[in-house]
C-alpha cells in the first residue's frame, strides 16, 4: 500500500528490426509479473516530446512475438536535444532543444525508468537524460551488427537469412545463364551481413566496406572461374563497399557523391565493370528494405527475449545507465553510452574471413 | 529390331524460370519409359548451332525437381535465323542465318523431334524449323504469365509467392515508420505478377502496365489513408507501369528513354512523387532477379510435370507443331506458333481486379 | 433514410484452414464499401446459438490477411439441429434442436443474410435455416479439396506446400541413410493432398484412399529401386489410404478399428511392412495439424479474396442459397446444398495420376 | 617431388544433420587449396570396413552447401570394434572386431589422417584408431546440441527453426479451435530444441527431459489460462520429457517400456491428460524426422564452414586427436574423446529457462 507502484516507459528508436516486438513483449510480461506498470512511448523520442504514451498490458503484447517492426512505432530522426522546428528566412533549418518537454512528460506520466531500445543514434539521444539523472537501461538494436560493445544483436541473423535466401535464388539464374550476378546487401560501414550471407550462400566474391577492393582482382577471379569451366560468378557486395584508391574513391554516406559509385550504386558499378572487362554477362540486384522487415527467425526471437529479460534484470537490480550486451557467448552489460560514436567493424583476421578464404572466396584484394 | 529407336532433343530458351527442370525431368523419364532416347541441347538454340548436345538418362534428371533454373542452360539471344556473327567496318552488327547448321546438327545427332521449352521469342526461333518440316512440340514458359494461348504457366506462381513474401516483410517496416513503400515487381508489358502479389499482400495501391495511372490519384489515396489513421501505404508496382498522358509518358521498353521514369525506374519515381506531394516519407525497392530463381513452389513443380507429360503425349500421339497450354482449368494444346507476337494482358474487367477494388485497392485510375 | 441498413452475419465452421481470415476480410471490406453492416458470429453456429456476436469494422479485418485460422473462432461439432445438451441416466447423449434459438438471435441482431464459410458439415447445418427462408450464401472450405461442386478451395494448396516442404526435408535423410521414409499427409477420404505433394516432391510411391494398395507391389517397388542403385524410397501416404482386400482391410473413419492399420496408423504399418519384407530400413512420419495452420501462401490468399468477393456479389445481386465455387478455372456458384453428402474424390484417370505414372511413380496397384 | 602428397579421408557417422555437406565442402576445398588429396569414405565407418572410398575434388563439393544430409552417406550402427556379422544357433547376434580391416583400408588407400564428423557414438568408434596411432581430428555433430565440450553444433539451429515454424502454424489452429496443442520435438536426453523452439514460438508450456514435470501443474496452467480468457494453450514437449515420480515414470530410451508414456508417446499422453482433467479439447503432433533433414539455415552453413575450416587448421598444424568445438562464442578445440559418454544437458539455471519463466512460461514444475 505505502509502496507506490513503479512505472517504466519503453521506446524503440531508429530503423526497424525483426525482434523489436519480442523485446517489448519480454519487458512488458516480466515487468507486470513483478508488479511494475509499463507505458509504451510511441515513435521513439518523438512520443516523449509529444506526450504520446499508452499503457501496455499482457493483451497488448500477446501474439506480437512473430511480428516484424515495432508495435510502438519508431522515428529515425527525433533527437530531443536537437529537433528541427522550422526554417529561417534563408531556408536554414532551425533546431530547438526539447529535452525539457520530455522531462515534463516523464514527470507527468510518472515514468521512473526508461527502457531505450535502439542503436548508436538512439543511445546518443538518451545521453542528456542519463546526464540529468533519469534512470535508463538500453537494449542494443542494429541490423548491421556493428554496435560497439556487443558481439551480436537481434535482427541481424534474420537479415542474413533473408539475404542468403535471395542469394540462393539468384544462384540458379546465374548458373542457367552463365552470368555474373552482383547482389547488394545492407551494411554501410560494416560488412557483417555481406560476410555472413556471402559465406552461407557460397558466394564467389564478397566485397566489404572494411576492405576496399581492386576491381581488377574481382575481374580476374570472374575470368579465372570461366577458364576452370565455372561459367558463372556470384558477387555478394555490402552497400558500403567501395573500390580502392584513385579517382574511383567516393564519399561514402554522401548521397550527393557523383554517380555511378555513390552509396547504393556499388552493385551496379561492379556489374558494369565485370561485363565490360571480362565479356561475362552481368546483372545486379539491390535487396534493400526486404532485409529488415517481417517475421524474425527463431534465433532472433530468442535473443530479443533474452535481451528484454536482461533489461528487466538490470531494472530489478537497480543497475541503471547500462546497455544489455552479448559477449563471449553470454548475456552481459556495458555502460549505456559506451557504444556512442564507435563501431564494430569486420577485422581483417576475423575467423569467418579466414574460413571464406579457405573455400576460395575472393575479397577483391 | 527393325524399328529404329526414336530420339528426341530438348532445349530451354529465354529467361530462366522455376520449373524448367521439372519439365526436363518429366519429358526424360516419360520418354525413357517409352523406349525413346533423349538428348539435351545446351544453352537453347545456341547448342543446336554449335552442336553441344548430350544424352540424358534417369540419373541426369534425378534430384532436379527442386532446383531452379535449367540444367541444360539457356540463352536469351540465340536466334538461329539471325545470329550476330561480328561487326562490319562501321561497327554495325552482321547477322547470319544459321538455320542450316542447326539442321545438320539435328540430322547428325539423329534427333527426330524437338521439345522446345520457352516463351514467345523461343517459339519464334522454332518457326523456321517447323516450316521446314522438323517435328516439334512446345512447352510455354513465362514468369510474367503473359503468353497468348495459355492461362497459366509454371514459374509464375513462384514469382508471385516470392514477391508476396517480400511485400509481407516490407509491410512491417512501412507500419513501424509510417512510410509509403513502393515495391517494383516483374512485368514489363503485363501486370499479372503485380496484380496477384498486390492482392495477396493486401497492397493499398497496385499499378499495372495495362492501366496507365494518374499520380495524383495515387497521392490522394496515400493522403486519404493518413486522414483515416492509416499511417502507411504499400504500393505494388509492375516494372512496366507508367503514368498516364502528357509529358510524363515514356517509351516503355526503351532503355534510352529519359530518366526518371524509364523502365526499371518507375518505383523510384512514384516514391519521390509521393514524398514530394503528400509529406509522407517514402521508400522504394526493386525486387529484380530474386523473383525468377530458386526452388519452385509445389504448385509450379506440379504444373511443370503436367506440361512435360503433355508434351510427351503429343509426341506419342504424333501431334506435332503444337504448344502445350492450360485453359479452363485443364491441360490442352494450341498451334505452336499461335502465341507469336501476341500477349495475354490483364483485362480491365479481370475478376481479380474487381476483387481488389472490393477490398479498397487503388489502381491509380 | 427510409431504406434501412442491411446487416449480414458471417460465421466460420469446421476445421480451420489458411485463408478463412482472407474471406472474412474481403466480405467485411466489400460490405462496408456498399454500406452494409457486418456482424461476426463467434465459433461457428455455436455463436448463433449462444448469441455471441460482435460487429466487424475495417479495423477488425486490418492485418488479418496473412494470419492462419479464423479470428471468429470455429467449432467442429456445433449443429444447431442436433446439439448435445447432456446425458441421460444410461449415459447416452441427449440432443436437442436449437434452431429456434438461432432464429431468435438472427432476429434480435437484425441479421438479414448469413455468410456461411465451411465444408460439407457446416453447409448441412445451414440447411434448416435455408429451408425456413433465411437468406444465406456459402463459401466452400476444405483442406482436403474434396468438396463436391468446386474444383478448388482455399487452404488446400497451402497444405500441399507444407507437405511438400516436409517431404523435401525428409528426402535428404532418406538418401543419407538409405532408408524408406513413409510420410502420412492429410486426406481421410480423398487423396488430393497426397497426390499433389507426392508429385511435387517426386515421391516414389503415392498411396491414396481412392486406390486400395497392394503392399507387395509397394515392397517390390522399394526392392526394385535398390537393385537399380537407388538406395532410398519416399512414400507419400494419405491418412485414409488402406491396403487392398483380405484381413487387412479396416474400417476407415472408425477410431475403434484394430491396430495397427487404423486411421492414422497407416504410415506406421506400411513402414513396418517395408522393413520386414525388403530389409530396407524404414521410418515413418505423421505430419498432422502442421498442414492446416499458419500463414496462407499467396495463392490461397488470392483465392479466398476472390471467394469472399463472389459471396458479396451473390448478396448484392440477391442470389441466395448459393455456394461460391471454382469450375473450369473460373469463379462460379452452385446450389448451396449441392455438395451435402457428396465428395469429390481422385478419379483413376486424373491427369495428375497419369503424369505421376509417367515419371515412374508407384501407386501400389 | 620428394615430398609425397598428403591424403586425408573424411567420413560422416550417426544421424544426418543439416550442415554435414558444408563441412565436407569446407574440408575438401581447403585441403585441395593446400595440395592435400581428399578421399570420401562412404556410409561412415562401414565404408572403412568395406573399402568403399572415392576421391573428392572441387566438382564433387560444388553446389552441396545448401543440400541437407550427407553426400557421403552415413550409418547409424557401424562400430568397427563390434560389428554384427551374423547370429549363432540360439539366435544371438555374433559381433566381430573389424578394426584390422579398417586399418588395412587406411593403409592401402594411403590415408594418413581421418576427419571424423559425428556425435558421441561416432567419436567412440574412432577411439580404437586413435589409440593405435592413427591421426584423426573430429568435428562435432548433433541435432540435439547435447555434446559435451561444445556449446553449439551445426544443424541444431535448423532443427529449432523448423520446430518453431511448425509451432507457429499450430498456434493459429489452437487459437481458432480453443484447444490445447501438444507438439513433440526432438531431444531424448537433452531439451535444447524444446527450450529454444518453445521460447521462440511463445509456447505456454515447455517440458524438458531435465525437469520431470508434474502433470497437475501443467493442467492447472491450462485451466488458469482459460479463466484469464486465453482459450488455448501450446505445449512444446521434448520427446524425452517424462512425468515426475510414481508409477508414471518410464524407462526412457527403452523402446520396450509400456505404453502410453514410452519414448515418442509423451505428447499423446500429455494431450490425453489435459483433455481428461481440464475439459479443454486437446490434440498432439509429433514432428519427427522433418526436423533433421533439408536445406540448412544460413547460420548452420556458416557454423559448419567454420568447423570444417577449423578441422583443416588442426591438420595443417599437426594437432591430432582433437575435436573442433565452440566455446564462449568462439571456435576452439578439445581432446577428441573428451565428450565420450558425457552429455551437455539444460541446467536448471540456464539463462533461457530464466527468460522463459519471465514471460510466464510453465515448465510443469
Task: Please identify the structural class of chain A as seen in this structure.
Answer: alpha/beta
- The total beta strand count of chain A reads 13
Elements of chain A, N to C (H/E): EHEHEEEHEHEHEHEHEHEHEEH
Largest interface (C-beta under 8 Å): A-D, 46 and 46 residues
Strand-residue proportion of chain A: 15-25%
For the largest beta sheet of chain A, what order do the strands appear in spatially?
3-2-1-6-7-12-13
Name the features.
alpha/beta, 7-stranded mixed beta sheet, Rossmann fold, 365 residues, homotetramer, 19% strand, 4-stranded parallel beta sheet, elongated
Fold and architecture overview:
The structure is a homotetramer of 365-residue chains. Chain A has 365 residues and is α/β, with parallel strands linked by helices. The first copy, chain A, folds into 2 domains: 7-154 and 296-335, Rossmann fold; 158-292, Phosphofructokinase domain (Rossmann fold), CATH 3.40.50. Chain A is built from 10 helices and 13 strands. In chain A, the strands form 3 sheets. Chain A has a 7-stranded mixed sheet with strand order 3-2-1-6-7-12-13, with helices on both faces. In chain A, strands 9-10-8-11 form a 4-stranded parallel sheet, sandwiched between helices. In chain A, β6, α4 (120-131) and β7 form a beta-alpha-beta unit. In chain A, α1 packs parallel to α9 (298-316), α5 packs across α6 (192-200) and α7 crosses α8 (266-278). The A-B interface holds A 15-16, 18, 20, 43, 67-70, 73-76, 162, 165-166, 168-173, 175-178, 181, 283, 285-290, 292-295 and B 15-16, 18, 20, 43, 67-70, 73-76, 162, 165-166, 168-173, 175-178, 181, 283, 285-290, 292-295.
Amino acid at each position: 500500500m505505502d509502496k507506490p507502484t513503479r512505472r517504466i516507459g519503453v521506446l524503440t528508436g531508429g530503423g526497424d528490426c525483426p525482434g523489436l516486438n519480442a523485446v517489448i513483449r519480454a519487458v512488458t510480461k516480466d515487468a507486470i509479473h513483478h508488479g511494475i506498470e509499463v507505458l509504451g512511448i510511441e515513435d521513439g523520442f518523438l512520443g516523449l516530446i509529444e506526450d504520446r504514451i499508452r499503457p501496455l498490458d499482457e493483451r497488448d503484447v500477446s501474439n506480437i512475438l512473430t511480428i516484424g517492426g515495432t508495435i510502438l512505432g519508431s522515428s529515425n530522426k527525433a533527437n530531443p536535444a536537437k529537433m528541427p522546428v522550422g526554417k529561417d528566412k534563408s531556408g536554414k533549418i532551425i533546431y530547438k532543444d526539447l529535452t525539457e518537454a520530455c522531462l515534463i512528460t516523464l514527470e507527468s506520466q510518472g515514468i521512473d525508468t526508461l527502457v531505450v531500445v535502439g542503436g548508436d543514434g538512439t543511445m546518443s539521444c538518451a545521453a542528456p537524460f542519463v546526464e540529468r539523472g533519469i534512470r535508463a537501461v538500453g537494449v542494443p538494436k542494429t541490423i548491421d551488427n556493428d554496435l560497439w560493445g556487443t558481439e551480436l544483436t537481434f535482427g541481424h541473423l534474420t537479415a542474413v537469412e533473408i539475404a542468403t535466401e535471395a542469394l540462393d535464388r539468384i544462384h540458379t539464374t546465374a548458373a542457367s545463364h552463365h552470368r555474373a550476378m552482383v547482389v547488394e546487401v545492407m551494411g554501410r560501414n560494416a560488412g557483417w551481413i555481406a560476410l555472413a550471407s556471402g559465406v552461407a550462400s557460397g558466394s564467389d566474391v564478397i566485397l566489404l566496406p572494411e576492405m576496399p577492393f581492386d576491381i581488377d582482382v574481382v575481374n580476374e577471379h570472374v575470368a579465372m572461374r570461366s577458364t576452370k569451366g565455372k561459367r558463372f560468378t556470384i558477387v555478394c557486395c555490402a552497400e558500403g563497399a567501395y573500390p580502392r584508391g584513385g579517382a574511383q574513391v567516393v564519399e561514402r554516406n554522401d548521397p550527393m557523391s557523383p554517380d555511378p559509385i555513390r552509396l547504393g550504386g556499388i552493385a551496379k558499378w561492379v556489374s558494369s565493370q565485370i561485363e565490360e572487362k571480362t565479356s561475362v554477362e552481368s546483372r545486379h540486384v539491390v535487396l534493400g528494405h526486404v532485409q529488415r522487415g517481417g517475421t524474425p527467425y527463431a534465433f532472433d526471437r530468442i535473443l530479443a527475449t533474452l535481451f528484454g529479460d536482461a533489461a528487466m534484470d538490470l531494472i530489478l537490480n537497480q543497475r541503471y545507465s547500462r546497455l544489455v550486451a552479448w559477449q563471449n557467448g553470454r548475456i552481459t552489460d556495458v555502460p549505456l553510452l559506451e557504444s556512442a560514436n564507435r563501431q564494430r567493424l569486420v577485422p581483417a583476421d576475423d575467423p569467418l574471413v579466414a574460413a571464406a578464404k579457405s573455400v576460395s572466396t575472393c575479397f577483391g584484394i
